[in-house]
Task: inverse folding
């Protein structure tokens, strides 16, 4: 598995190391080396660092908390088996994101036809309290949950994990143009749905 | 009040905590998945050497195929033997019948000669 090329992939979740990004990375590299030697406490530290990222990716993909927890655990158990192949903290994060997305997509394909949320439910939620941010966020999450698995993974990696399209292409193992196309079409669809549902959101400039 | 699309998307997709002691549950699974292969290996090691061979199923299948083949060959040769016996019996019966017909014809010929 190749390494992520850009610094965007290094923007991992928070870790309790109060020495800035460089100190944080150094602490994680040390934890990785210790975990590779069989130190479970160090591996626990790595889990705590990345659990939010892996679990939320799984949750947004699978939509069911129990399934997301199971998938996230699977991914960490799997990375423990492959710790010897991990060469750096950035590689670990890349590996975790890649494995989570691929396994989630596999599970969704096995579940096909995946249950779609009824559009009316979203409308009701949005109409109940149009100025409420939690409801708006929930509506957006529901709309994203209705995207097909691969475009959904692309959107999540872009807006949850803050990856650039080249990093997304590398993570999902797909051509850059495919990633750009998925992003463009998914955002256009989401904007259109937001307008249809009259969500209190301005479409903004497509990026 | 209306929000910008992409910042709203980022806020909607912010990360969530998997809950209390997620790491502990993963470590427990790592421990159990390390114990499980060891237990399976122990059970496998306890079996006799011949049963551990991965060639055993292939050998059993080959023996079964050979047995079925031998049975078929034996059946075929028995059928051929029975057919030979039936043919011989038929020829013998025809030969006896022919002899009897000849005796009757000779007797008739003799009778006709004596009358004339």
Result:
């Amino acid at each position: 598995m190749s390494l992520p090329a850009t610094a965007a992939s290094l923007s991992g979740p928070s870790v309790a190391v109060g020495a800035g990004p460089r100190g944080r990375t150094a602490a994680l590299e040390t934890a990785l080396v210790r975990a590779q030697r069989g130190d479970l406490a160090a591996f626990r530290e790595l889990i705590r660092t990345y659990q939010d990222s892996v679990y939320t990716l799984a949750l947004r993909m699978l939509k069911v908390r129990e399934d997301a927890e199971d998938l996230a655990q699977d991914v960490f158990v799997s990375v423990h088996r492959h710790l010897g192949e991990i060469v750096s903290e950035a590689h670990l994060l890349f590996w975790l994101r890649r494995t989570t997305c691929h396994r989630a997509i596999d599970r969704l394909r096995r579940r096909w036809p995946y249950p779609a949320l009824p559009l009316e439910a979203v409308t009701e939620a949005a109409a109940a309290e149009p100025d409420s941010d939690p409801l708006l966020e929930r509506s957006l999450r529901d709309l994203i949950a209705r995207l097909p698995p691969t475009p959904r993974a692309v959107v999540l990696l872009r807006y949850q994990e803050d990856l650039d399209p080249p990093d997304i292409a590398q993570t999902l193992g797909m051509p850059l143009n495919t990633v750009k196309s998925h992003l463009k079409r998914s955002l256009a669809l989401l904007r259109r749905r937001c307008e249809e549902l009259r969500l209190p959101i301005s479409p903004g400039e497509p990026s | 009040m209306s929000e910008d699309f992409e910042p709203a998307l980022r806020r909607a997709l912010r990360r969530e905590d998997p809950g209390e002691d997620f790491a502990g549950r993963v470590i427990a699974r790592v421990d159990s998945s390390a114990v499980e292969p060891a237990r399976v290996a122990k059970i496998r090691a306890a079996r006799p050497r011949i049963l551990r061979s991965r060639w055993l199923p292939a050998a059993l299948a080959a023996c079964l195929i050979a047995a079925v083949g031998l049975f078929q060959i034996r059946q075929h040769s028995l059928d051929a033997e029975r057919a030979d016996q039936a043919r011989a019996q038929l020829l013998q019966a025809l030969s006896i019948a022919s002899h009897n017909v000849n005796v009757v014809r000779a007797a008739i010929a003799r009778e006709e000669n004596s009358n004339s």
Notes: The longest strand of chain B covers residues 3-4. The first helix of chain B runs from residue 5 to 12. Chain B has a mean pLDDT of 86. Helices of chain B lie at 5-12, 22-46, 49-52, 56-115.
